[in-house]
Amino acid sequence: MPPSLIKLFVAASSVITGTVTTTTTTAVNDNVRRFDAVVTAPMIDAGAGTTTIPDTSFRDDSGTTLAAGALPVPPAGGYYNLYANGVLQEGGLSTLSATNLVIATAALLPGTPVIVEVHDYTGTTSASASTPNLTVTTTVNT
C-alpha cells in the first residue's frame, strides 16, 4: 500500500468575556440670532413676483442696523426661520444671502414686519472614549 498524507485535525474555541465602557459627551451649541425689518414699497417687485429686503434694512436684537454684507447665512447643518407679520413661512419661500433676503411673493404689503431667525450649530462638539476590559480564552483540542 502506498504511503498517504496524514492530516492533523485541530478544533479551537474561544470565549470572550468582559465589558467595554463608552462615555460620550455632547455639547449642543445653538447660536440663535434674530433680525427684523419692515417691508417698504420699493422692496416689492410685482413684475418678478418677489420681495427683496436688503441686508442694511435689518436690525439685530440690540436694534443695531446691519452693515452691508453682514446678514448671516446659516452654515451646513444650520437653518433659518422666516416670519412675515408674525407668521412662520414655509422653508422654500425664501432665499437668504449675506446681502439680502428674497421672498418669492409680491403679496406682502408695505409696513409688513419680517423677522429672520438664524440657527448656527457650528460650535456643537461631541467626544467619545471607550475603555475595553476584555479577556479572550482559547482552547485548542487536538
What does this structure look like?
Residues 52-118 form the DUF4183 domain. InterPro entries: DUF4183. This is DUF4183 domain-containing protein. It comes from Paenibacillus chitinolyticus. Strands 2-9-5-6 form a 4-stranded antiparallel beta sheet, with no helix packed on it. A 4-stranded antiparallel beta sheet has the order 3-4-8-7, with no helix packed on it. The model has no long low-confidence stretch (mean pLDDT 93). By secondary structure, it is mainly beta. It has a domain at 27-125. The protein has no helices and 10 strands. The chain starts with 10 loop residues before the first strand and ends with a strand.
How many H/I helical runs?
A: 0
Overall pLDDT score: 93
Helix content: under 10%
Number of strands: 10
Pattern of helices and strands? EEEEEEEEEE
Radius of gyration: 31 Å
Distance between the termini: 27 Å
Question: If strands are numbered along the chain, what order do they take across the biggest sheet?
Answer: 2-9-5-6
Judged by helices, strands and strand pairing, the structural class is mainly beta
Percentage beta strand: over 45%
Which terms would index this structure?
single chain; 142 residues; mainly beta; 4-stranded antiparallel beta sheet; 10 strands; 51% strand
Task: Summarize this structure briefly.
The chain has 142 residues and is mostly beta strands. 0% of the residues lie in helices and 51% in strands. The protein has strands at residues 11-27, 31-38, 44-45, 50-54, 79-84, 87-88, 94-96, 100-103, 113-120, 125-141.
